[in-house]
## 1
Amino acid sequence: MSVTPYEAASGGSAVQITNENRRGAASFSFNGSAGWYDLVVQYFDEDDGVSQFRLFIDGQVVADWKADNILPTPDGLPHAHTSNRRNITGVALRPGEEIRIEALAQGNENACLDYVEVAPPALE
């Protein structure tokens, strides 16, 4: 789906759940070196529902959260005001492991996901 303004999402768009059962997933394989990483999940949290997200590494749940912030969304669409970031720190990854986010949309909120970033741990 397109996000307005264009700059509010990677490439101007995000993925969302549109099916009747209100469930969906996005995944990719990790291609880096084995080690500890931080994961950054950018998603949209509208005020017309409370979507739920769950992050898996090779089938194991490493984080889950609800998109339940109170943010200004006068039009009920994902945009710069509703863009949120979830940081998951200290995740062990090996080459070929699947990184998967499962989502359950609720209300008129479609569990919109912008991106997942895999980064070296931040220096303290």
## 2
Amino acid sequence: MGWRTSPIWVRDGVIAALFAGLLSGVPSTIHAVLTHTPILHAILAAGGIVLGSGAPQSQTLFAGALVHWVLSLFWGVMLGIVLPRRATVLWGGVAAVAIAVLDLLLIGRMFASIKTLPFLPQLFDHIVFGIVAAIVISQRRRAR
């Protein structure tokens, strides 16, 4: 199955994930700058999921970027499936909070690298992701 023959919700979700994935790190980056903590802390934590704590930083950064994009694509497609046609952006924000609870508090707490991340900036990253993804999905639906 090619890109043009994939279901529309897959295409909506992938495109939404590309935009949302690029913008979703803004809150935690601002927090890092304001608190003088390493800007790459979150991406290194994501890489720690795959490589653990002893891997070289360059490999951990690459793994973190890969983990971020895989999760972004997954959640983007899931939002493309579940977000309703009405109040899409509102529900994108609500879904983002639920995703944050799952990602950070339930699953994420099983990984030492994720436990080190401050919760609120990561929560806001998720909310930005959900809202941006919902805006893209809503606009694509409206254009059809």
## 3
Amino acid sequence: MRGVPALLLLLVAPAFLGAQPARLTATFIGNMAFAISDGQRTIYTDFPYESGSFGYMKYDFETVPKAPGALCLITHGHRDHFDAARFEKMDAKVIAPPELAATLPKDRVIPFAPKMTWSDVTIEAFKTPHGSIDHASYLVTWHGMRLYFTGDTDGTEALLAARNLDAAFVSPWLLKKVQEEGGRIDALRIVIYHHRTGETVAFPKVWVPKQGERLVLQPAK
């Protein structure tokens, strides 16, 4: 990982910070679901999903705050990543791989492409392997910060090719594979997601969030 920090990562934003440059707040919902907001717009990653599916994290969909006009950024259609019935209840657009997007109302889908925009956010998509299902990993550039989301893939090529990441959101098994290959993730911070409750991850300088915990991502001055 890069040694010179260009990003502050805090578990709780202190009240005394006052006026700050644009920053992103990421709240962990469960599985690979984060609510990421700059205070005006919100992106949900792999949300909404089916609570407790495949033995992964449970949550209460009704109590999760729903930002109006949001974007749901979905890596693939497995139930522990996306629930179409719950999505219908949200005021949100969606980006998803074509196989899943084709099953959703067209007026709510942002057409899938190698590079997409939503408001002032740029989203780059990378086709990545996950069994036989249509799957994508994403690089999100927002307020100058570069956030990479692996999804469920077990392929390391796209992740290791990404450069100058402020944060990489990586599954435990993919991080283990990177270690086994002797690879290097070019990111200031590595955030583990899709872990099981209480799971430990033996890797330096990673953050393994608990449900409801929050990160504040902010560019250096």
## 4
Amino acid sequence: MPSVEEPVLTPPELTPPEWIVLAVICEGRTHGREVTRLLAPYGEVGHVWNVQKATIYRSINRLTDFGLIRSAGEEPSHRGPVRFMVEATDAGQAAVASWLRRPVQHTRDIRSELLIKLALLDRSGADPHDLLVAQRALMVPIMAALESRISAATGFDRTLLLWRYETASAAIRFLDATVSEPSEPTARS
């Protein structure tokens, strides 16, 4: 019997770890232990942004409540209790696709949120070009605004503005270098 898509509740703003858990679940039917393995500090995704086990299971519950994932049966395990499987709903797939293409709003999030998006896009074989171009377009006016304020600033305010300007400048150089690279998504085994 085909499963019926559950009604989607409008979720409150998801946290970055919830987005990451949802993105991993969108890769295919899975269970909490596998998501935990992938998001552990030594995991395929966790080396970019690790998510603690308790946060993963809390995220699975919230994402289920929001209609972004659903139960997908059980799987026996030779190494412990029965595993409860989950899969993304169509709404979950659409939400992740949108999130992965949305540039981060703050320069400070380039190192964390943008990199995890790039890693997840690479895992899925998707081309990150549009995200990188959108991110650069968002960063250019930020850098220009910071530059215009530096000369009038004094004391620690100047130090802080210089730090932010140099960080934004480095981010733009990174984006330029990444956009100019030929896109070769990694094939997952």
